[in-house]
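JOB MANIFEST
job_type = single_chain_structure
chain_count = 1
residues = 182
[input]
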Amino acid sequence: MNDKNLLIITVILGLAIGGVYYKKTHVDPADAQQEPAQGQNWDNWGPQKPQLKPEIKNEGLSPRSEAKPDMSGEGGTAATFKEATELAKAKQKPIFVFFTATWCQFCNEMKSNTLSNAEVKKALTPYIICFVDSEKDSATARQFKVKSVPSYFTISPNGQTTLSGEGKRNPQQFLKWLAGQG
């Protein structure tokens, strides 16, 4: 047997094994609501019993939550980015803006774990805090060239971006980023 024949046999076996695996693990949505037919055993080859996904728990925030952590501090909070810039100019305070989306699990995890952390809240007290839904306020997201969520920025009172970041960070990573070290 030459190398070409061996390669063909290997490919055919791989496809056959892959097909069996797919058939064993694939659940047709139409079959998902049905019980096994008589003589059909869920534990043998054939359609698998559908597995229910566990509920995602984000410490009080649902997976599609628009809730914002309590970020009250000396800087205050703003409902819109426009309001945040007006407050920043009036109070001469920097802005922390957090771009999010209702469907973004990492955003919700950062809101419930990172931004709700006592040390992070303390570090953000000098800032005017603004949460922006990147889908509802796409103009502001475009202004900051947001490509993914979560994305976050610090803005000086005169409107200059001083820090930018994206992606999920734990409290220690976020504090390091906020200090300009990562």
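[summary]
Residues 44-65 have pLDDT under 50 and may be disordered.
The first strand starts at residue 77 and ends at 78.
exit_status = 0
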